[in-house]
Amino acid sequence: MGFQFNQVGGGTKTRRPVALRMQYNPRCAHPRCFLQGDDGIERPKSLTEIQEYIEAENRRLEKDPVRSFDSREINVRMEYKYCPNMILIDTPGLISAPRVRKNGGANMQQRALLAAAKEAERLVVSKMKCPDYIILCVEDTMDWKHGITREVVQKADPDLSRTVIVNTKLDTKLPQFGSPRDVMDFVGAKIIDKLSPHKLGGPFYTSVPSGRVHRDANDDDDDSFFEDDDEFVAACAEKEDADRELVWNRVKRLANDGQNPKALLPKVGISRLRGFLERRVDECYRRNVAKIVPLLKAEYISAERRLKACQKELDAISLERLKDNADAFCDDFCKALRDSIQGSIIAPANSYGETLEQENLAAGSFAGKFCMCIFFVCILTPRTSLELIEFYSYLQLRHPRVPHVSV
């Protein structure tokens, strides 16, 4: 990334996945960071503020009685002159669950650690199952025959075809090998090629200098801090050169035995890992261009269609159209009100009209005693009074057995 970001130290320091969207920007002499809130809006934040937010989330989940981890990603976007163009998702580290006797049971602390280990493993495996992701399997081992982390990775990527293996803390491991051949076997990792012949890449060997970048202006006493990110990057490059030189000094005498110790050097260093990942991301992008371009065209057409629909709606609510619609509504309302005041008993024939046969069927039999009352509520005017009298006479002629009609 070109600068220190994550929280380091003992214990579990990542309880929510951190999605780092890195963007190369040569004009940024200092990292520019943006944190996406729960509302989905990006807000500019300093590195210190983002680190404090991540640490606060870790403390919250550490005290949570229900769960120790949260699968929701903390989305951070950053621009910097050293950043590559890629997205890195930092997942919580795996926890080594304690072994307990089946019959003897486990105490409360052991049960809590077992539950946390299973929860962390489920979260990490679920993230790795995305087929488009490249998996960085970071291991801290001196014997390639024992790979606990690889076993977990293989639950999501059985043949490691999406996995790049990385071995950390090389500077602390090399002094523990007694002979050049042991160093050759470890760094060469031929056993890995036999166990996982379809792996994507690696193993790569990395180590970083100890110490933190100085960010607190009020603290000038601690000399273990780097003055700035550029000094930290330079220290990483020096550490890489030192590791490569140390490996060469340990194995160079094997060149006389017909072996090729120089083949180990391209595997050592963070810059070699970064270059490999950048090439893989570029290859994936170029390979998927044929799929990406039609998707972009379809999205463009869809966006253009939505834009036209929005423009049509905006044109429909212009001031002139609103005035015309309001005038038309007023005219219809006044006409309806005038017709109501004048009164009318004429119903629309197309809605309420019936033929003689339909009317007889609807009327049914008039045998027996019954009382039929028809009520009309209307505003009486001289005209409507005459119309109601005529309608009353019509009902008497049409239905002489109707005993009473009240108007």
What can you tell me about this protein's structure?
45% of the residues lie in helices and 11% in strands. The chain has 407 residues and is an alpha/beta fold. It contains 13 helices and eight strands. It has helices spanning 47-63, 108-128, 148-153, 170-173, 180-188, 190-195, 229-251, 270-287, 289-316, 319-342, 349-352, 356-363, 382-398, and strands at residues 18-24, 32-36, 42-45, 74-80, 86-90, 135-139, 163-167, 201-205. It folds into three domains: 1-128, no CATH class; 158-287, no CATH class; 305-342. It has a five-stranded mixed beta sheet, covered by helices on one side. A three-stranded parallel beta sheet has the order 6-7-8.
Strand and helix layout:
Layout: E1 18-24, E2 32-36, E3 42-45, H1 47-63, E4 74-80, E5 86-90, H2 108-128, E6 135-139, H3 148-153, E7 163-167, H4 170-173, H5 180-188, H6 190-195, E8 201-205, H7 229-251, H8 270-287, H9 289-316, H10 319-342, H11 349-352, H12 356-363, H13 382-398
Give the rounded overall mean pLDDT.
Answer: 80
- What is the straight-line distance between the termini? 91 Å
Rg is: 40 Å
Helical percent range?
A: 40-55%
Percent of residues in beta strands: 5-15%
Written as H for each helix and E for each strand, in order along the chain, the element string is EEEHEEHEHEHHHEHHHHHHH
Total domain units: 3
What is the structural class? alpha/beta
Profile the largest sheet: 5 strands, mixed
- Tally the helices: what do you get? 13
Strand order of the largest sheet: 3-2-4-1-5
Q: Count every beta strand, where a strand is a DSSP E run of 2 or more residues.
A: 8
Low-confidence stretches: 366-381, 401-407
Overall 3D shape: elongated
